[in-house]
């Protein structure tokens, strides 16, 4: 087992262990992948100011996100097909989040269901991500199930009414269960533990959807279903309807534009996530970290601003917090940990991020994450 010291080590290990179709599904963006690359690269332009002779004892990373206590300002982002990176993937990632004292967000398009995750974590509260679909009755049933599963926040994704084109998935013929092509079979024959949700403690496919919508029993049918079901007419009225129906903490995900952020604040939601879906939707859009600051300036006094996209280290978290993010979400950093080493890998990813965040904050002369602001950044670099 190689020594794992950073998220890149986990990525390399995951690439070796996860069947290519599913590794590529995680580690890719849409079209030219320019936004996907910018999400990470733009963090590096922002420079930190090191301070010396400052008392660094008694540091804390504790804060709140939508009023809920978190051990550090990090949550796990919703990712579809997580159970394809590792058997029982969503349950394992949720358990890791619970151990580390941070929120786990379950995707609508997960392999393990809301009920599986509730049961697998001893009914520890988690967050549920909802896509807006044409079938309002189905949305209502998902909201009711999320409430029954003890979910303590609803993350409503607004940037996937239609899907960005992801070349790698098209070339790999992404499907679940995987089509039995020779490379797939060879790949999977040697890596059963990392293969599939259906090799977990139960046979599972799309736990939130199978059995609730007729005819969805595999991925090929599912992609057709997605195109038919995801609602291209989504509007702010729908957001209001979902907010009223849910009645709890509501986080709106996928906002990049200041004007949309203002509308999100007007809607009465509790938080907005500045996100470009990890560079998987509109390629050519700005990186999330560069979109963050104008949105914080426009609505930061009315609504919590969160962000995701390209976060691969504790320093990235620190820079986002310095620019006004109340919390950040990790998608691929979690998936790499999961694909590399299951629950232990997700915990490792979170420990790496926590330690980097703690040390970098101290180098910048702060002992409390709540005191981190733009003054820790070098002017002219953000
Ligand atoms: C996602 N994302 C996502 N978002 C969402 O709201 N619902 C979903 O089902 C998914 N599915 C999904 C699958 C995979 C494989 C990835 C990589 C991402 C987007 C996700 O929540 C988040 O916005 C990005 O992952 C953040 O970027 P990083 O941390 O992956 O760079």
TrEMBL record:
GO terms for biological process: aerobic respiration. GO terms for molecular function: FMN binding; L-lactate dehydrogenase (NAD+) activity. The keyword Flavoprotein applies. It comes from the Bacteria. The active site is at 277 (proton acceptor). FMN binds at residues 78-80, 107, 129, 157, 253, 275, 308-312, 331-332. Its cofactor is FMN. Coiled coil: none annotated. The keyword Flavoprotein applies. Gene3D superfamilies: Aldolase class I (3.20.20.70). Glyoxylate binds at residues 25, 131, 166, 277, 280. Keywords: Flavoprotein, FMN, Oxidoreductase. Belongs to the FMN-dependent alpha-hydroxy acid dehydrogenase family. This is Alpha-hydroxy-acid oxidizing protein.
């Amino acid at each position: 087992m190689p020594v794992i010291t950073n998220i890149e080590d986990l990525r390399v290990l995951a690439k070796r262990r996860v069947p290519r179709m599913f590794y590529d599904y995680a580690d890719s963006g849409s079209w030219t992948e320019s936004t996907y690359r910018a999400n990470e690269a733009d963090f590096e332009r922002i420079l930190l100011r090191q301070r010396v002779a400052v008392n660094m004892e008694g540091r804390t990373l504790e804060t709140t996100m939508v009023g809920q206590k978190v051990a550090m300002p990090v949550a796990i982002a919703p990712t579809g097909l997580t159970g394809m990176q590792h058997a029982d993937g969503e349950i394992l990632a949720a358990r890791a989040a619970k151990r580390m004292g941070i929120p786990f967000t379950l995707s609508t398009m997960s392999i393990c269901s809301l009920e599986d995750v509730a049961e697998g974590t001893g009914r520890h509260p988690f967050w549920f991500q909802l896509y807006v679909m044409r079938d309002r009755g189905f949305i209502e049933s998902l909201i009711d199930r999320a409430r029954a599963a003890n979910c303590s926040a609803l993350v409503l994704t607004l940037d996937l009414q239609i899907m960005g084109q992801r070349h790698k998935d098209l070339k790999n013929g992404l499907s679940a269960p995987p089509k039995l092509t020779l490379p797939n079979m060879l790949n999977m024959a040697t890596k059963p533990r990392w293969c599939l949700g259906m090799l977990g403690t139960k046979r599972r496919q799309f736990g939130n959807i199978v059995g609730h919508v007729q005819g969805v029993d595999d991925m090929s049918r599912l992609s057709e279903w997605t195109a038919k079901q995801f609602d291209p007419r989504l509007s702010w009225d729908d957001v209001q309807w979902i907010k009223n129906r849910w009645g709890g903490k509501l986080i709106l995900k996928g906002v990049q534009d200041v004007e949309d952020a203002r509308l999100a604040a007007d809607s009465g939601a509790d938080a907005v996530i500045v996100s470009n879906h990890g560079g998987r939707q509109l390629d050519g859009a700005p990186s999330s970290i560069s979109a963050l600051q104008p949105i914080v300036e426009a609505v930061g006094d009315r609504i919590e601003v969160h962000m995701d996209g390209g976060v691969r280290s504790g320093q990235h978290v620190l820079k986002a917090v310095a620019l006004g993010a109340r919390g950040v979400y990790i998608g691929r950093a979690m998936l790499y940990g999961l694909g590399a080493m299951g629950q232990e890998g997700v915990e490792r990813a979170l420990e790496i991020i926590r330690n980097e965040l703690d040390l970098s904050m101290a180098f910048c002369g702060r002992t409390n994450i709540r005191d981190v602001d733009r003054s820790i950044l070098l002017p002219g670099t953000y």
